[in-house]
Amino acid sequence: MINIEELQSTFRGRLIQPNDSDYDEERQVWNGYIDKHPALIAKCSGMADVIDAVNFARKNDIEVSVRGGGHNVAGSALCDDGMVIDLSEMRGIHVDASQKLARVQGGATWGDLDRETQVFGLAAPGGVVSTTGVAGLTLGGGLGWMRKKHGLSCDNLQSVEIVTADGELLTASDTENPDLFWALRGGGGNFGIVTSFVFHLHEVGPTVMMCAVMYPVEIAKTVLSTWKDFMIASPDEISSQLLFWALPDTDDFPDEARGKHVIAITAMYVGDPDEGEKAFRELREINTPVLDLSGKIPYSVAQTMFDPFFPKNERHYYFKSQDLASLNQETMDALIEGAKNRPVPSMLLAIWHYGGEMNRIASTDTAFGSRNTTFLMSVDSVWDDPADSEKVISWSRNFLDQMKQFSGDGMYVNFSGFGEEGEDLVQKAYGDNYERLTKIKTEYDPDNFFHLNQNIKPVSE
Ligand SMILES: Cc1cc2nc3c(=O)[nH]c(=O)nc-3n(C[C@H](O)[C@H](O)[C@H](O)COP(=O)(O)OP(=O)(O)OC[C@H]3O[C@@H](n4cnc5c(N)ncnc54)[C@H](O)[C@@H]3O)c2cc1C
How far apart are CA 251 and CA 249, in angstroms? Predict the structure, then answer.
């Protein structure tokens, strides 16, 4: 039991301990597979609470985890026996529409930010599920529907306010602490607790053209190769993921489509929706689809399209990725074979196309490790029955191992399973940027106070 008396005297938010009635609810994260028991959850209400929580933990030698949106599948927002510094109540957003800037607190979700920015027809590039935290997603990079047009989420940062391990509040930008700013754009939660981000915004919507066309998996070869050729030649306006999926048995889908194994093309056209409609025609006419949900919809709705399939704490998740050096015939055959053998139909196999602005930025300009690839494979394992956990996780790991022959070493740190490979994983994910990251870690967090993350170890360790 942690004695919270000293912290309580100044703390404005809530301090939750195991004997509190809502403790079990408060220790939930998105992934229902995670079952951790922190000794203290410090729900901060502002920057001062974050500073006090960091100082209190450091002085009392308490292990710390940091929670933004709680989506990380490894459950790194939580810890056993230590203290969760929880920013989930810090969701304030201020939009300066004339300057196209938004200041966003460290616990906001992408849904929060889209709501505030879309009122002005603006948006910052986020992810594809609205409940995901702005913080964890941005600090690891941030892949969404605007990656080709406007880059990763982290590429759109103007500055960041961060509480470091010694309880100091710093600003990081191109002109203040630029090394730290470089590291925060991809280097994850290694350097401190971000209390606010300032994002550059772009004019988007309010209506966008989405492609969401699902073909029978039996014609996967044709669909995959058509999509690959289309995407390589496509303009920056189009960002897309291709998914192997079994349509859920829910009201979201017509009776005749439910349960069908499909290969789905999902894409957004960031620009004139009429142009988008024309551009997507080729993808929608590959063959007779099982279902075509494509159409012009509000950007804010497009941002929530996948939300129903990833509910909080109800399902089990293990997402892990690997760069694909190319999508040649052999690689495509292996993907199709793997998709066929998925141990549970709720598992997704996703291929993200990279390119455009996110690849034009030099790989040494930010810490994000994988700018030089064209495709990323993500095994998005989703299952409901806890009895399937071992089967699904070991299948996912074996499949990723098999696919290594078609891959570089790179991967996306925000899709890194349970981070089981430790240092080896981060070294490979950051590639040539790793050494510089360890130096910056050593400068800002020499004792590795922030280590429950995709951990970059300081040089002294
Ligand atoms: C359903 C689902 C959909 C997803 N979709 C996408 C997607 O479209 N694109 C994409 O790029 N990724 C996506 N992800 C992955 C997502 O980027 C990571 O899970 C990310 O870690 C989530 O951030 P969070 O703040 O919600 O996570 P948390 O679990 O709260 O935090 C994860 C880690 O981030 C760090 N962190 C969190 N908040 C702070 C803070 N304020 N300051 C410093 N460090 C902090 C900590 O190290 C923490 O351990 C998705 C994940 C899920 C489960």
Answer: 7
